[in-house]
Amino acid sequence: MIDLAITADHIRDVIGDYLDAHPSDKAALAPILELLDDGADLTTRKEFRGHATAGAILTDPNGLILHIHHRALERWLLPGGHLEASDATLCGAALRELVEETGIPAAMVIAVGNRPVHIDVHPIPANGFKGEPDHQHFDFRFLFRTIADVGQLQTEEITDAAWRDADSISDPILRQRVTQALG
């Protein structure tokens, strides 16, 4: 069987490509590169210094962005989540999360390039229920397009979905980059 797991080299390559387009983000991404230099496995959620996650920004033909209501966090978010051993690429992981959470078939989704539109480093508070201390998420956010509508939601995690204007994206950098990409 072929090992499809995302590698440190893949993460470095994606960051390098991203920094070619967004060199001003280099300082913000330094924690990721430092952990990679230390040999950390950023693909496992057990790496509590920080680990990679994959997010999807999905737009419809009218330029609306799909938001999901996360059950545990009681917040509207963009689809995404932790990496799995079966993920071969960060973009593929974002697509997998999107499909799992929204029920939209992968065949109905097109990636807008292989480069993330944004990489966000943000703190995650401790979760005693899961036995997780404070840590960081390195969220690789990819832009996708679809003509499909939401299918069967992953009800264990998601309570609702809604298409909203790009202005509703709370992160100002992500909002700007998505708006620019959509023209």
TrEMBL record:
Gene3D superfamilies according to UniProt: Nucleoside Triphosphate Pyrophosphohydrolase (3.90.79.10)
InterPro entries per record: NUDIX_hydrolase-like_dom_sf, NUDIX_hydrolase_dom
Domain (Nudix hydrolase) ranges: 49-183
Annotated protein name in UniProt: 8-oxo-dGTP pyrophosphatase MutT (NUDIX family)
Organism annotation: Planomonospora venezuelensis
Top-level taxonomy: Bacteria, Bacillati, Actinomycetota, Actinomycetes, Streptosporangiales
